[in-house]
Specification:
Number of strands: 11
Radius of gyration: 13 Å
Shape: globular
Mean pLDDT: 94
Strand content: over 45%
Number of helices: 0
Helix content: under 10%
Distance between the termini: 40 Å
Structural class: mainly beta
Length: 122
């Protein structure tokens, strides 16, 4: 019954912003580490950011530090990823994920959303 549903992807020009949402159901949001991964065509799935909601710890991929911000809304059981100053290399399908471990490895995550496409043009 666990379900993660991403939304908010789209087409944006370089320097623009998008906000991704991940609606979570079927688990206790605050007891899970949650993060975002992305995958570009022909490339491996790449870690973007993880948050450990129990203590508020976060870890960002170096290339997105200062541009992306992860947050959550417990009342709505939703995780957000605010993406600013987007670059063409950010183009990918973005997936939200949940797991019991604060990890940057996708194998450690048990639940995944379906993905949402982010395309950044030059």
């Amino acid at each position: 019954q666990v379900q993660l549903v991403e939304s908010g992807g789209g087409l944006v020009q370089a320097g623009g912003s998008l906000r991704l949402s991940c609606a979570v159901s079927g688990l206790t949001f605050k007891n899970y580490a949650m993060g975002w991964f992305r995958q570009a065509p022909g490339k491996e799935r790449e870690f973007v950011v993880v948050a450990r909601w129990s203590d508020g710890r976060t870890y960002y991929l170096d290339s997105v530090k200062g541009r992306f911000t992860i947050s959550r809304d417990y009342a709505k059981n939703t995780m957000l990823l605010q993406m600013n100053n987007l670059k063409p290399e950010d183009t990918a399908v973005y997936y939200c994920a949940a797991g019991a471990t604060y990890s940057r490895n996708y194998d450690d995550y048990d639940y995944w959303g379906q993905g949402t496409q982010v395309t950044v043009s030059s």
